[in-house]
Structure formats: C-alpha cells, structure tokens
C-alpha cells in the first residue's frame, strides 16, 4: 500500500469538515453548511446547502436499493438531516443537544447520532427525526495526561467518547482500541485542550483491548493516532483490515486478525504493517478520513483541507 493514485474532485472556498463513503458514493460535508456527493469515479452527484452551520458528520444509507439513494448529515448545532438522491431534505430535526461528531447507519433507513454527551437512535429517519433511544453510555470514558485510560469513569483529565470504527468520525485523537468478534470500536478524545499534547507526545502507544476490557497489546506508532476505521462489518466488500490515520498525514493498515493474535509479537506486527503517506503540504493536517471497498478496489477520502480528494492504493 506504499503507492497510490490521487484524484482531486473539487476545490472549495472553505474546509471539508466531514466525509463518508460506501461502495458507490463519497459524501462530503463542508464548513459553510454544504453537502456534496460524488460517484466513485469523481463525477458530481449533487451539491446542496442544507444548513447555515458547519457540517460535522455525514454517512450513507447502506441498505437503499435501486436508485432510491439516501444520505444523512449533521451540523455544529446538533441538527440531523436526511437527504434524497438530489440532496433535498426529506426529514430534519434536533439530533443531539450539541455538536454531532459521528453518524452511524444501523437498520434500514435508521441512523444513530453521536455527540460528546452520548447518542440518540432514529429508526425511521426518512420520515421523521424522532429518537427511539437516548443514552450517555458512549461518553463515560476519560484519559489522563500520562496516558492512563479510564473505562466507565469521567474523572480523568480529558473527556473521551467511544465510537464504532465501521463509520467515519471526527476526533482530536484516538487513545485506545477495542476489538470484538462482530465489531471494532475506538476511543476518541473530545476535549480541545488535548491538542496541546499531540505534538509533545513522548511515545505514541495505542492500547488494544478485548471484549472484556482486557489488554491485548499496545501498538506503537511513529505519530499520534487521530482516527481509526475498520472494514470488517461493511455491508458491501467487507475486509478484516483496520486503518489508522496518524498526525503525520499517514495511513497505517494492519490485519484485524493479526492484531488479535497474541502469538504475533507487536514489533513484528508494526514492521509488517502497510503504510501510505498522504501527499499534502507540509503545514496541512488531515483531520479525518473514510475508507471503503468496491469491485475496483479500496478508496480513501479525507477531511480537513479545502479540496476533496480520494486516494486509491495500488493493490
């Protein structure tokens, strides 16, 4: 995965602030409240302004059939939007009381919205934005400045959220990973004060826990981990690979099976990991990414810059 083809779809007057993908589309949220959707080949599907606030999360409906394409978006004020294939708003409502950082498509035409205070589930989001479940369970974690991680305890120095690596998210940094048989989760630092620690980290260790919160290993990277994604549970073209976005604008890919295999030494695991350096200017930082597979291979798209571009590794 050392070499890749870069495709720039469009440059904007403002930042790309959220991205998502499925096997057909790349969905983009922007700082000015616009949402744009592109085909995998880079062709524009639609572009529509849906909010006066920054778009902070987007995702694609995974179980739409035929040409009945559905998309979801959320903004800085916690508003949630369901969009049709032309970008028109089908449903709109308060998704969370604060900024939404992650959207996860669950059951057909259902979406879950996550913010730093918890999550809300919306089972019939094409018709109405009405929550069937509201919880604070994903917000009950924290981290100290020395790297000590606390499960089910917000008493640490920095507030931490749990997120599902199936979907893209926006995180200041990711401080731990949790692997289960049917899913991969990660823990995002959501406290802005943590920015100061990103460039002064003495080591870049990412602890990996099992389903019982027992440590499996600590992965050692060359730079802090910003975001993690897994293709293990994707509806189309799943693959048991875990992707790590580093502060150094690098993507590292490791087999999920190998991470769980305790007979493989961590040093060997890291030495054999695939690595992809993202071609951006020296003073630019990628702030998030999405990854998905299709019949033509794997593709990544990124947020944090004023252009939307995708990278296809030479597989």
Can you describe this structure?
The structure is a single chain. This protein has 315 residues and is mainly β. 5% of the residues lie in helices and 49% in strands. The protein contains three helices and 27 strands. A seven-stranded mixed β-sheet has the order 15-14-16-18-17-19-20. Strand 19 (205-209) and strand 20 form a beta hairpin. It is globular, with a radius of gyration of 18 Å. The model has no long low-confidence stretch (mean pLDDT 93).
Overview in brief:
This protein has helices spanning 195-198, 256-260, 266-271, and strands at 4-11, 16-21, 25-30, 34-39, 44-49, 55-60, 71-75, 79-83, 89-94, 100-105, 111-115, 118-122, 133-135, 141-143, 149-151, 158-164, 173-179, 184-189, 205-209, 215-220, 225-230, 241-246, 250-255, 274-277, 288-294, 297-303, 307-313. By secondary structure, the chain is mainly beta.
